[in-house]
Amino acid sequence: MIRAIRACKTASEERAVIRKECAAIRASISKNDQDYMHRNLAKLMFIHMLGYPTHFGQMECLKLIASPGFPEKRIGYLALMLLLDERQEVLMLVTNSIKQDLNHTNQYIVGLALCALGNICSAEMARDLSPEVEWLLQFRDPNIRKKAALCSIRIVKKVPDLAENFMKPTLALLKEKHHCVLITGVQLCEDLCKVSTEALEYYIKVYKPSLPDFMHFYKVQHQ
């Protein structure tokens, strides 16, 4: 398909190729062809990036995300982030699948769910999934903790009322040895202070006693 599109010399030729491919994808979807579902979604993502409508493939994203295998979930989540946004009502149907994947034993599947949630999380999804994200801030793998912190940033921006839930877990992130987790922890702390005066007062109370020692260390290091 990509070769055929790139070989087109005019816009009308490209549109004809796209129409043909979309018709074939629709036919495959109507037959519920499981073997080609991930390939169809990959094609739809390319068609979407060219600026053509791909709304008819939204439900296929949800089906792939609900699949048990990692390769299918990877394509499904990638298509979800590309083809949909937080304003789509169909997102409410994927909340349960994301919740299951956030509790999955495979950390790579957990990572996929966190990436998707960090990109398309709506206020409703934030309220439903914040307990899972809060728990993942203490996950054993630093990459998952980093992604959970990034999700937390989006959650507190969407629903500032949830800021209180993330105040204490953030303290552990600020003591991290892994730089990627530490940086996201600092950003989360900053955003919590922006949306909640209670969070700002809490962090001032916690860190104010150690501020003189920090300033002394800073001056010594920069003399």
Low-confidence stretches are none
Give me the number of helical elements.
13
* Rg over alpha carbons: 22 Å
Counting structural domains, the number is: 2
Major beta sheet summary = none
* Beta-strand percent range: under 5%
CATH-derived topology of the largest domain: Leucine-rich Repeat Variant
Distance between the termini: 62 Å
Task: Give the rounded overall mean pLDDT.
Answer: 87
The helix content, as a percent range, equals over 70%
Corresponding CATH superfamily of the largest domain:
Leucine-rich Repeat Variant
Order of helices and strands: HHHHHHHHHHHHH
CATH architecture of the largest domain: Alpha Horseshoe
GO cellular component, one term: membrane coat
Protein name: Membrane traffic protein
GO biological process, one term: vesicle-mediated transport
Subcellular location: Endomembrane system
